[in-house]
Amino acid sequence: MSDADEIRLEPCEPGRLTPAELRTLFLFEKLTDDQLAWLAEHGCTMRVPGGGLVLREGDPATSFFVLLTGTITLTRRVGQDEVTTVRTEQRGVYMGATQAYLRDDGIPRTYQASMRALSDSEFFVLSADDFGGLMRDWFPMAIHLLEGLALGIQSSQAAIGERQRLAALGALSAGLMHELNNPAAAASRATGALRQRVGAMRMKLGKLAAGKVAPDRLTALLELQEEVIERAAKAPAMTALQTADLEDQLGDWMEDREITAAWDLAPVFAQGGIDTGCLTDLESRLDSPELLDQAIHWIGYALETEQLMSDIEEATGRVSKLVHAAKQYSHVDRSAHQWIDVHVGLDSTLVMLAHKIGEGVRVVKDYDRDLPEIPAHPAQLNQVWTNLIDNAVQAMAGSGTLTVRTYAVDDRLIVSIGDSGPGITPEVRKRIFEPFFTTKAVGEGTGLGLDISYRIVVNSHGGDIQVESQPGDTRFLVRLPFSEPASA
């Protein structure tokens, strides 16, 4: 929606509703005849053509609207995007200057959302002054209660919302720092060990040269070192038992030849997948028992150096992956609304919550990678995945199976997030999406996570979210359209 869009309200004929017609609206059905007559005198009917803008968020709240016919949508601006919050055709719904009755505290009253007519629509309209006056005159006690309720809700929502945002940010930041610290510490340790190994390897090379090794033998040794390193890089993965058996064989072989620190060198060669056959080949090519000890130590240093460099590469790659996941999760460098692959957000959320998921929870990903992209607000959907995965992990109390599945049903993409926890009772299931409803202990939850998730999926994306639960199998099913919602 452009700020340049014009608001065009067209007065209808005859221009006003009768008291009898006003009584058919649920908002006015209990009023007296005199009150209805006053409304008929001070209000009027207006119409807006389909597609027309009725009111704009942020403009002064000058009118109170009641829908008579047609379909309307309410939107809120989030950054550069318009987020749909309500789409309705229910006769009698009201919007606009709904808080005109509040006491004048010097703060300008503005529309809290924009309203557009999706089809030709008609409204009963009162000025904000008239609406505020009748509320204060006709219902003085109710106004005192409403003012207190409005101020109390604003204060509590501000406090709870701020604390919830800080808590969520703190938890994610702490988790990210924890995840980053592990590979960073591993890289630091490997770097220190690498410096020692390189220094020892230089000294060993000097000793080999000082031993007056013939040039052809030294060349052969260097070639063999490269062959050993290449062989280690291509070595197949072994089980712990296979590695232990190979260490024993290598240790016995080296001990038979009186290699110093044989049992310290054996694990290095075993980890590189080097067997006794390779060492025997080394022995025959050297053809010098007195140099075998130094040669094996030198190649051992080379192997350990390669292993340490692989550790550093893996650790720094993990850091890069975490930073990339955090970037994908927050979408700080991308537009808010776009066509996305939903699996990218799911994967980045799982990475961000790895510290919460823990080692006791097995994560199963069953993705249909052939699913097309969908139109969405990725940062908002990541908030949904965060809430659902966090709840699932808490339900399993640190032990169980978390299943994240994607598939298609008709024109909807389904994201299923399931857990093997104790399940949700039917009584709780009925209220699970209500604002402030929570089953957590006092101080452990605000009861807003699933309410926020519901509003993001349903109102912002035109989708649906449901829960299916029985002991050992609870699944939240998020249904998202493959095409832009009609009300977007």
UniProtKB/TrEMBL annotation:
Its name, as the record gives it, is histidine kinase
What top-level branch of life does the organism fall under? Bacteria
Could you tell me which InterPro entries the record lists for this protein?
cNMP-bd_dom, cNMP-bd_dom_sf, HATPase_C_sf, HATPase_dom, His_kinase_dom, RmlC-like_jellyroll, Sig_transdc_His_kin-like_C
A Gene Ontology biological process in which this protein takes part is: phosphorelay signal transduction system
**GO MF entries:** protein histidine kinase activity
Q: Start and end of every Histidine kinase domain?
A: 304-484
EC assignment: the record states 2.7.13.3
Q: Which residues cross the membrane?
A: none
**Domain named Cyclic nucleotide-binding: which ranges?**
27-135
Going by the UniProt record, its keywords in alphabetical order are: Kinase, Transferase, Two-component regulatory system
Which reaction is the catalytic activity of this chain? ATP + protein L-histidine = ADP + protein N-phospho-L-histidine
- Taxonomic source organism: Actinoplanes utahensis
Q: What class of enzyme is it?
A: transferase
